[in-house]
Design a protein that fits this description.
By secondary structure, the protein is mainly alpha-helical. About 60% of the residues lie in helices and about 5% in strands. Pfam families: Xan_ur_permease (PF00860).
Length: about 475
């Protein structure tokens, strides 16, 4: 097939329907650049196929998350790997053909941890109800995107809250990852402490794997995270093979391959039964808030790199990529996964010259091809997959520089949000705490007129929620 149409910046004549459909001339790109960009983005974010199932799948009495009666955790992880791939591919196809942007999407880290550890674990909500909240959030996102309500939503949330979420989520992910790696363990006196790294094979291998992965990341090796996960996994199997540790110490029991996702398909419908309206609303609110600003922030940041922003710093037709996110989230909840978001790893493809939806399309196709290695999701130990959470956490910490630390009415709510998230194991509580304290700080500075009426209303609602939630009146949320 001839891939040329018009002329690229180097003078090469380009013809072909791909160039015409995706607008290579308009965006100053070529087929070769788009293909390379798509491959690069795929390599840097492919870890999600392994990590998302590892976070979402639960183990009775051991780890909160999705637990299916009659199925082992390994089998559930394989199901979730299939779902992860399908959901990401659907969202990316919408991004490619509807939005024509080089952004890749998949179930987001942080939101999947909130789903498993906070909603299902700490709040005791059935995973089916958590999926119902995801679907509800997705539908709301679609409706609000259709009517162009984004600017009103942005106005409603205090600026320090928006700027602190990324850092708070980073610390939240770091705690989860380090605990699964046995680097951080429970302690009756100090709540948490350093694990027995030198004597615990899992902790020792995890630390070595993390250092190796970070070295690759610092060297800007494409696919550093997935390479680190796989290398750590192979080292675990190798250590058992040569007799350094006993069988089963570093490796999970591998179940038979399964691609049947029917136990997850449509489970959200049952989740709407016997729902506590207020608690359910809080869950939906948190999914929506983090998803909305994470996606909008990532899209804006990557768009700046690509030169997509206008003179006012806005992305023209931003509602189109937001719609891809909304559709992916809705379908994801229906199939059995947590909220979809745009991945910051899309920036790597943009750096390689990706400028159109073809870059995203390549990522989607490669994800579908990876269905062939779904059984790998169950073969990778949790300590190896959770290395990704720590690496991503370190990348998210850079968001702290966006906070105006010199303005106390800005830094105090932001700081509270960052502190509360990891210490309460809840993104929702961190956001809520910041929303409550923001108006009070503005009043203290004599700037109460700067507080929007909707912000006062949100603060009042969360005060009531915390009063009910922590007084013992609300013993269960479902």
């Amino acid at each position: 097939m001839d891939d040329q149409a018009g002329s690229d910046p180097d003078g090469t004549q380009q013809t072909g329907w791909l160039a015409s459909y995706f607008g290579f001339d308009k965006h100053g790109t070529t087929l070769t650049r788009e293909l390379l960009a798509g491959l690069t983005t795929f390599l840097t974010m492919s870890y999600v196929v392994v990590v998302n199932p590892a976070v979402l799948a639960g183990e009775s009495g051991e780890k909160p998350g999705i637990v299916l009666n009659g199925y082992t955790p390994g089998e559930v992880r394989q199901m979730l790997a299939v779902v992860t791939i399908l959901v990401a591919a659907i969202a990316i196809l919408v991004m490619a053909f509807y939005a024509n942007r080089p952004f890749a999407q998949a179930p987001g880290l942080g939101l999947n941890a909130f789903f498993a550890y906070t909603v299902v674990g700490a709040m005791g909500v059935p995973w089916e109800t958590a999926l119902a909240a995801v679907v509800t959030e997705g539908v709301l996102f679609i409706l609000l995107t259709l009517v162009g309500a984004r600017k009103y939503i942005v106005r409603l949330f205090p600026t320090p809250v928006k700027f602190s979420v990324g850092t708070g989520i980073g610390l939240f992910l770091a705690v989860i990852g380090l605990q699964e790696m046995h680097v951080v363990v429970d302690d009756s006196a100090t709540l948490v402490t350093l694990g027995n790294i030198a004597s615990d094979p899992i902790a020792l291998l995890s630390v070595l794997g993390l250092v190796f992965t970070l070295m690759l990341h610092v060297r800007r090796v494409k696919g550093a995270i997935i390479i680190g996960i796989l290398t750590t996994t192979f080292a675990g199997y190798g250590a058992e093979m040569v007799g350094l540790v006993g069988s089963g110490t570093l490796t999970p029991k591998i179940p038979n391959p399964t691609y049947d996702i029917t136990p997850l398909l449509g489970a959200f419908v049952d989740g709407f039964g016997n729902v506590d309206a207020f608690a359910f609303s809080l869950i939906v609110f948190t999914f929506f808030f983090v998803d909305f600003f994470d996606t909008a922030g990532t899209i804006t940041g990557v768009s700046q790199m690509a030169g997509f922003l206008d003179e006012d710093g806005n992305l023209p037709d931003i509602d189109k990529p937001l719609m891809a996110d909304a559709v992916g989230t809705t379908v994801g909840g229906m199939l059995g996964s947590s909220t979809v978001t745009t991945y910051i790893e899309s920036a790597t493809g943009v750096q390689e010259g990706g400028r159109t939806g073809l870059t995203a399309l390549v990522v989607g196709v490669l994800l579908l091809v990876s269905l062939a290695i779904v059984p790998l999701a169950a073969a990778i130990p949790l300590y190896a997959s959770h290395i990704a959470l720590v690496v991503v956490a370190l990348m998210l910490l850079r968001n702290v520089t966006a906070i105006n630390w010199d303005q106390l009415s800005h830094s105090v709510p932001a700081g509270m949000s960052i502190i509360i998230m990891p210490l309460t194991y809840s993104i929702a509580y961190g956001i809520a705490a910041a929303i409550i304290i923001y108006p009070a700080m503005k009043v203290a500075e004599g700037q109460w007129r700067d507080v929007h009426a909707g912000q006062w209303a949100l603060a009042a609602v969360f005060v009531v929620y915390f009063a009910v939630r922590t007084s013992g009146v609300l013993q269960t949320v479902v």
